[in-house]
Each structure stands twice: as C-alpha cells, then as structure tokens.
Design brief:
The protein is mainly alpha-helical and 262 residues long. The chain has helices at 8-30, 37-41, 44-77, 83-90, 92-95, 98-109, 116-123, 131-156, 160-167, 172-183, 185-200, 204-209, 220-229, 233-253, 255-258. Helix 3 packs across helix 11. It is globular, with a radius of gyration of 22 Å. InterPro entries: MetI-like, MetI-like_sf, ModB_ABC, NifC_ABC_porter.
Length: 262
C-alpha cells in the first residue's frame, strides 16, 4: 500500500506537538538515579505512600462503580426533567480546579459542613484529614470519568436485546443485571481503569480535604510534592517515575480499545 505524503504544514506542528509531550518524560527518565533506585524504592516512606495510594484509589474506584454505573444508566436510559442539567453537573469536577473541589468537600462534609456536621453529631463520623477523606476526595474527581465512559457505552449498545428481554417478561432489574451489564462490560472496565488512574494521580482535592499526613493521607502525588519541598529532587524523581510506570501500564492495557484505530 502506498503511503500518502504528509503535507509539511501538518507534519511540522504534529512533530512539535509530539516532542512537547515526550520531552518532559525523557527529562524525567534522564534524571532518574538508576544506581540508587532499588534502595530508594525500598524506603519505608515510599512503600507506605505507594501502599496508601493503591488502597485508596482502589476503594475510590469501587465507590465510583457502585454510584456511577446506576447514574450512567439513568442518564442513558431514563428520560426525566433536568437530565441535561444533571449531566452538566456531573462533568463539573472535570473542569473544576481540584483545590476548589477540596474546599467544596470541606464545606459539605467537614465537621461544620452541611452534611458533615450531622455525621459528626449523630454518628461521630469525621471525614476530613482521614484515610476515608482521601477516598472521598479521589472519588469526587474520578467519578465523572466513569459515568461518561459507561453512559457512552450504554448509548452505543444495541437496545434491542433489552427490549427482547422485556417482552419475555424480565423485570428492569433482571434485564439490567443479565443483559445490560454484559453488553457494556468493556465500557465499564475501561471507565473503571480511567477512574482508578485519575484517583491515583489526585493531588489538589486530597491535600485540601484530607491533608498530608504520612501513613494516613499522604498518597504518592503528595509525597512527590513534600519531597520536592524538602529539596530532595532525586527522591521526587523516583516517586514520579513510579507514577509514570503506572500510567504507561494503564495505557498499554487500554491500547486495544482506544489506541489501535485503523
């Protein structure tokens, strides 16, 4: 097959855009202290930050699945007043500065917040500056990714299978669990991976709502920030490298779905 010649006005900015994205990653790899990398990876602070990041991002993903899949189904399958407004509100965390999201969470779920005050006085539950607060902050910023992915999968699924199940006497719940979920399972999986990746890299809302306490709320991004602030550039590079490896692994896992276009 003959390859079409790429026009120069398109080729030059395309190459510049590629270099713009790749050069920072090359710089990170070039400054990585490879000789001391194994020892730094074994440091208790690094291991604890990584453990906490993996645990909280996984719990946040589970919470997003429980809340997000039904929400996406309603947006895709149910017509109700204000549906466009609800969809717009769901996407707000995508464009909202994470620090602002953290402040909003404090005002809603803090000890003097709209709901947090009731949780504190009634059940003695305090969310800010706890590990649970990290999960809440990560879920807040990651949930839209899951909802958008699952809603898109639902809209692209063939609704005739659901209609056939309904004509055979299946209830809506049975149709949802036995027909709809298997149809959109790849979309749910892709949305969950994106949700998990976003939760893993969350910084602004977490540090505002949950603080930066080692072993309690200090996730990998917060550890990178603290290490940089202390003047340990090599340590920050090592932590950043871990996040880079995780990101590349996620993209590699999704390559068959999004990165192999004809």
């Amino acid at each position: 097959m003959k390859t079409a010649r790429v026009p120069v006005p398109l080729l030059v900015p395309a190459v510049l855009g590629l270099l713009f994205l790749i050069l920072p990653l090359i710089g990170l790899l070039a400054r990585t202290p490879w000789s001391t990398l194994p020892a730094r990876l074994a440091e208790p602070e690094v291991v604890e930050a990584l453990r906490l990041s993996l645990v909280t991002s996984t719990l946040a993903t589970v919470l997003c699945l429980v809340l997000g899949v039904p929400l996406a189904w309603m947006l895709a399958r149910v017509t109700f007043p204000g549906r466009r407004l609800v969809r717009a509100l769901i996407t707000v965390p995508l464009v909202l500065p994470p620090v602002v999201g953290g402040i909003a969470l404090l005002l809603a779920l803090g000890r003097r917040g709209l709901v947090g005050q009731w949780l504190d006085t009634t059940f003695g539950i305090t969310l800010p500056f706890t590990t649970a607060g990290v999960v809440i902050a990560e879920s807040f910023v990651a949930l839209p990714f899951l909802v958008i992915a699952v809603e898109g999968a639902l809209r692209g699924a063939d609704s005739r299978f659901e209609e056939a199940a309904a004509t055979l006497g299946s209830t809506r719940w049975t149709t949802f669990t036995h027909v709809t979920l298997p149809l959109v399972a790849p979309g749910i999986a892709a949305g969950a991976v994106l949700c998990w990746a976003r939760a893993l890299g969350e910084f602004g809302a977490t540090i505002t709502f949950a603080g930066n306490y080692p072993g309690i709320t200090q996730t990998m991004p917060l550890a990178v920030y603290q290490t940089m602030e202390s003047g340990d550039l090599e340590g920050a590079v090592v932590l950043s490298l871990i996040l880079l490896v995780v990101s590349v692994a996620i993209l590699a896992g999704l390559r068959d779905r999004w990165l192999t276009a004809p």
